[in-house]
Amino acid sequence: MRTERVGKYLIAVSAILVLLTTYLAIFYVPLPATSVRSANDILSSLDGNSITVVGFIVDLKVTPPPGLDASERINFTLADFSDYQRYRGAISDGVLEEGWWTVRPLDVLAFTGGWTGPYLGGILSNGTNVSVTGVVTAGAVGPNSAATGFHIGVSGSRNVDIGTSAAEFSIMTAPVAQKIFYFHMPSAWICYLAFFVTLLSSVFYLKTRNPKYDRWAFSAAELGVLFATLAILTGPIWAKQEWGVYWRWQDTKLTTTFVLWLVYIGYLMLRASMQEPGARARVAAVYGIVGFVTVPMSLLSSRIAPLLRSGHPQVIATSSGGLSPESGLTVGIAVVAFTVLFITMLIKRVEVAESEEELEELKREVGGEA
Amino acid sequence: MRAALILATKDLKIELRSKEVVSSMFLFSLLIVIAFRFAFAEAVDSGALSLEDLAASSLWICFSFATIVGMHTSFAKEKDRETLEGLMLCPVDRSALFLGKALSNLVLVFIVDLLSILFFGLFFAFDYDGHAVEVVGVALVGTVTLVLVGTLVAAISVNARAREVLLPILLIPLIAFSVIIPCVTATRNAIAGELTESVRDIVSIAGFALIFGAVGYLSFDYVLEG
Amino acid sequence: MIEARGVSKHFGRRKVLSWLDIRVGDGEIVALMGPNGAGKTTLLRILATLLEPSSGQVIIGGGDAREDPIRTRRLVGVVGHSTYTYDDLTALENLRFFWSMNSMPRRDFQRAGIEMLRRVGLSHRMNDRASVFSRGMRQRLAIARALIHSPKVLLLDEPFSSLDQKGVDILTQILMEERSRGCSVLIVTHDVQRIAALADRADILQGGRIARSFDSSAIRRGDLDAGYRASSEAGVA
Fold this sequence. Notes:
The complex is a heterotrimer. Chain B is mostly helical. Chain B is about 85% helix and about 0% strand.
């Protein structure tokens, strides 16, 4: 009776917290005003070793170099100059003239063929197409390359480098898509926490053989898979906006989290395919321990990202700025909300697991096995 | 670990007589090589895909899948012929059984590695740019890790229904980052004669061998019981 | 010596053994009987350290079985439902494998192995693979395998089931020899006739514990036959 009342309170509290997070993410965290920065300015703020989120390019102002045919189609890349060939497909119709250009979402082509260098690319369109988001400005440079500058090319047989001084950017640092971060990051954190609970419960189960711990391990793993699924689903929604693609295999964070998800799906399948409760608990506990090696791999992958050629945004910004106070508060509340939600769900799931076990027993008794 | 050696010798002696495991593993890996040859025929002929890259990636897919076939048989046979209990009745630590099984599996998988490397070279008229020895070396290091985690997971899945399907489902995510990616990189570097570039990969593979070996050694008591 | 004190075993909520006590002294042959599903095999597996009891204590040869399972396994020889032998090895190689796994000295094997095969009547087939053996011959090999490390405790689960008359005679002979060597023998069987000539005691397992016990004189009087029939019927009902 008493635990039931506690459960009710917990459900109410977690519901309120999740609603609060949603409210804060939508209404409280402001969309910062755009600022105009020159290409040279952005380049000089990059440290050349890690990926820095500068912001989204809303508009681009170009000064065409002299001697350009005004009717030539243009493309634009901001990248390691040696990499520009990769972006050549990103061409749109337009006449290069001095003034502000609206940037369309980044074309997928920018991501074909491995490491793309500091990627910042987009298709220019002349005023009429007013889709806002451009690309996150990334200044990361792998150990093998150096940021050499922005490049604006002209299609056809010749590509003309107009250099960094010819470009100026109108930048927005936290666009609408960013808001999914307040759900994405806590989900990811909860899945790590859940798998850690599975690890601990598995160890305790093997030490004590108390079926209670087996229920905790199983319930936590199931919830971990649920939250990992949420993280894996919300990530691409954001990535499509920021990177122009849903998925990048170069991003080790994505791939290691995906592998992590597969490991615990395997854990659940292993349990589903074993009938004898004792053997199931024992064997699953061992797999729950072995499988945990993928958790630190995933957790640390974006910290060691430059080495592994990742591009995943880090929670704690490395160089430029960090979180605004509003967004910091919202992140904090989001993490608390998801943690309380997880604890509530875990307690309830364990209760359900108990009932399931009882049902299993009763079925066996009715089934007439002596 | 005398018991581990005795068990491995027993397994290898049986394998020498029946040749069931090595032949099915090798046939499997041969089929993968051939499948790759067909699938990438145009890419290789046109030069879009270098033979070095194809060798590194297809060989490790061969090794991984051959391991899955081999590992599965290693415990499933004992289980199906009801000899697993006989082993469990022997007065030795369960961890000795783990080491013994891992040892015999290592020998079998490594034989298949060597045959696959040889046949890949013959089929593609590829001499590994004169670095076959380094390629074999990387194969050995990677196979140790592969076999340690494979033996443990095979023992875990042997009591489950649909264990043939379950084994790859449980094993592949575990070896994706610990074995396949670093081994492919190291093999490519080995062919290019730049194995020194892959010190980090080799250290990481060996590190995972230690982790998986330790977990298997310590937890085998719980895996084989009842 | 085998001793189980207050052994319980349940799978989930299903109780198989509850507070069972049994004792088999040195040089004693005890038959364990009871209706199907009474938990005879479960008890045997617990004594052989293949299964952990939910509670209670098992003492084999004076030491706690759970505390030192390896020592216990060295003392115990088991003939189970399956033979635990390898088809691709010869009879002698099978014995050699289990001999080595029991850390017996390698140089003594040749003599001990051949002697053991002679006792079970397989010495003329010692270099044949077990895969060509008949069911009865495999069972004899299984008996040899169980005895190869001179165990102090023998646990046999339906050992007569696939043996022909000659095999039964051989096993009976071996069990009597082992008894005179001081070995404790526990046999699970349904065969009242066969056990009557051999057992010093018969225990009937029912309701998760030893329900009745017959000593050798009672067995010979035929009490066991009637008692066992009654318990089987109760078990069915």
